[in-house]
Amino acid sequence: MNASSLNRHVLALMFAFAVGNSWSFESAGLQSLSSFKEAKTWHEQFMQGAPTKAQRLEAMRTLVTSSPVGARGLRQIYQNFEGRYSIDPTIPGLEKSVLMQRSASKQQAKGYRREVLYAVAYHNDPRFSVVEMNRPLKRPWGNTDADLVIQHHPTGLYGRIEVKDYSLNSQRTNLQKLKAQIDKMSLEGKKTGQLQLWMNARPVIPEIYKFAESRGVYVSENVKTGKAIALAPSLLSMR
C-alpha cells in the first residue's frame, strides 16, 4: 500500500469512527399523534413561509415530538438538538431524515434516526462538516441515494456514507443485494472521487469485507461504538 492509499485508508477509518458515542433507539415508545401524510403536509406548508433557521430547528423538534418517540425521544435520543447534539437544520436533506422518522415502517424510521444521529456527531466534530443527506443519485448503473456526504476539513476530501444496520444473518441472506450496492458505490467513487464508506451498526461478515475491499469501498462494523477516534493525529503526521 503506497502513502496515498494509506492516507485514504486512515481517513476512511476516521470517517467511520468520528460518530462518537453509542445511542439507543429503543427506550421511547409513545404513540404517534398524526399520520406521515399529515406531518408531511404540515411541514410543506410551514416551509412555504420562508422560516428562519431557528424556526426550522423548532419545526424539527415538533416533528420528533409528534412522532412515536414523542417528547421523551426528543430528550433522550436527540437531547433537544442542543449542546453537542446541536445541528444546522439547513443542511440539505436533513429535514427529510427527520420527517421520515414518521414512516409506518419501524425499521425505516429507526434507520433515519441513525442517519440524523450520525449527522449530529459529524456536525459537532470540528474536523468534519455535513455537506448533504439523502441526495438522489441517478446513474447509468442504477438509481440510489447517498445517506450522508461528509467533508474532512484538514484534507478537503469528501466521503459518501451508507448507514446500515444488518444482522449477521441478514447479511448472509441479502449478500447478493449488498454486493450489488457495493458495486454501485465503487462506480460512484470512481465518478466523483469521494471515499465510499459502508457503515454497519453491527458486526460484518468476512464475505462483505473481502468483496468491498476488492471494489475499493471501505467497510466498518460496530460504528456506533466511537472507538479509534485517536487516528486523527496519525493522518496529520502522514500528510
Describe the structure.
With about 240 residues, the protein is an alpha/beta fold. Helix content is about 45%, strand content about 15%. The chain is built from ten helices and five strands, in the order ααααααβββααβαβα. The protein has helices at about 5-15, 35-45, 55-65, 70-75, 95-100, 105-125, 170-175, 175-190, 205-215, 230-239, and strands at about 130-140, 140-150, 160-165, 195-200, 220. The protein has a five-stranded mixed β-sheet with strand order 1-2-3-4-5, with helices on both faces. α9 links the parallel β4 (about 195-200) and β5. α1 (about 5-15) runs antiparallel to α10 (about 230-239) and α8 (about 175-190) packs parallel to α9. The longest helix is centred in the middle third of the chain and has 18 residues, at about 105-125.
Shape descriptor: globular
Largest sheet: number of strands, sense, barrel closure: 5 strands, mixed
Order of helices and strands: HHHHHHEEEHHEHEH
Number of DSSP strands?
5
Backbone structural class: alpha/beta
Q: Into which percentage range does the β-strand content fall? A: 15-25%
Radius of gyration: 18 Å
**Count of DSSP H/I helices:** 10
Strand order of the largest sheet: 1-2-3-4-5
C-alpha termini separation:
15 Å
Mean pLDDT figure: 82
Q: Could you estimate the helical fraction of the residues in percent? A: 40-55%
Brief summary:
The protein has 239 residues and is an alpha/beta fold. The protein has helices spanning 3-17, 36-47, 53-65, 70-76, 94-99, 106-123, 168-173, 175-192, 206-215, 232-238, and strands at 128-139, 142-152, 158-164, 195-200, 218-220.
